[in-house]
Amino acid sequence: MGWFFLFGLIFCVVRLASAGCTAFVSPNLGKGIKTWGTVGLVVFIVVAAGLQTMYTSNDQQIGFVNQFGINTPYTKSGLKFKIPFISSAKTLDARTKSMTIGYVELSDDVDSEEYETTPGEAIMITKDFNFIEIDFIVQYKITDAIEYTYATNNPEEIFRDCILTAIKNNVGLTPIDDVLTTGKAILEANIRDSIIEELKHHETGISLVSINMQDTTLPNPQVEQAFKDVEDAKQEAESKVSQAEGYRNTEIPNAEAKASEVLSSAEASRTERVNQAHGEVAEFEAIYDQYKESPVVKDRLYYTMLEDIIPGMEVIISNDGKMIYVKNDSASVNAGTTSAIKSATTDKNDTKSDSDTASESKKH
Fold first, then answer.
1. How many CA atoms lie within 13 A of 360 on its CB side?
2. Where are the domains of the chain?
3. With bands split at pLDDT 50, 70 and 90, how would you rate the model's confidence at 358?
4. Whole-structure pTM over 0.85, yes or no?
5. pLDDT (tens digit, 9 = 90+) per residue, 20-79?
6. What confidence category does residue 206 fall into, taking pLDDT thresholds of 50, 70 and 90?
7. Which CATH number is 97-219 given?
8. Cα separation of 165 and 187, whole Å?
9. CA distances from 300 to 156, 307, 311 (A)
10. Close Cβ partners of 23 (under 8 Å, ≥ 6 residues apart)
């Protein structure tokens, strides 16, 4: 638009100068040229006013109209009108843009991997005083055209400073192990929250869309290899722990089942023995009552006990109270036992005869 006004102004000046020179040479001819110059100037002013009245914007643009120092944001896209020469329109691109932290891309090609590290931004100090190189890619967009235009001289530079401050502060509060391994997601979330909070104190008109950590490396290759070995050891330890957990989850249910089975068996055995003991006590008490009433029961109990202790034997009581044990399953033993019984009986009779003879002698 500025070039159009400049071209029109030059055109009018040239026409007026030409008209003046012609009037000096030929007054009549000068009057005609002067008239055409005036007409051209009027046409130019009308066209310029018409162009100044109209302006357009699309869905990917934001802006505002300034009239007597009052800024009015765009409310919709499309063709709009304003007062010419008094109002001015400012239109800005509101599409999402990218910004790199810690490196500079050497090619405009999106698929290109050519870049150069900027040590002043990439090298940082962690909580445990280790140096580390971290690269970030930030996506942002302009959300307030008035603040972006008037509030600060260089809003994007201020936005970049806020990002660097948030990154270095949060990395300085994080151990190097977390930065290199499992703490990346938490670190990114903390940095994002810090940037959003910091932007509240600066009227940049820019909003953060996302921030993603790219490469995380160590400045010294030997240290990097040492951390890689540590990471491999941690993964192996986690694998061993996982295997142990699986073994424990398998063996513990089996052990619990066996323990439950043993407890059930013990409980059943206890119940059986307790009931048996109660029965034996009741039987003993009943026999004891009989024993108190009849002492003969004692001998019967004694003989019954012998039958329990020496099973498969028959107990024969001779007349003199001697006990002879006879097996049921051997005829020879039975024969021998019968002879023993006869011998015991004979000995008893002989002893009785001798006693009687002695008594007779004493009488005489």
1. 6
2. 2-92, 97-219, 295-342
3. very low
4. no
5. 445 444 455 444 555 656 666 666 666 665 566 777 788 888 988 888 888 888 888 777
6. very high
7. 3.30.479.30
8. 14
9. 116, 11, 16
10. 29, 30, 31, 33, 34
Amino acid present at 223 = V
Which of these ranges, 61-70, 99-108, 292-301, has the smallest mean pLDDT? 292-301
Residue 37, judged by CB atoms within 10 A of its CB (0-12, 13-18, 19+), counts as buried
Q: Scanning the structure block, which residue is given the tokens 């008209």?
A: 19
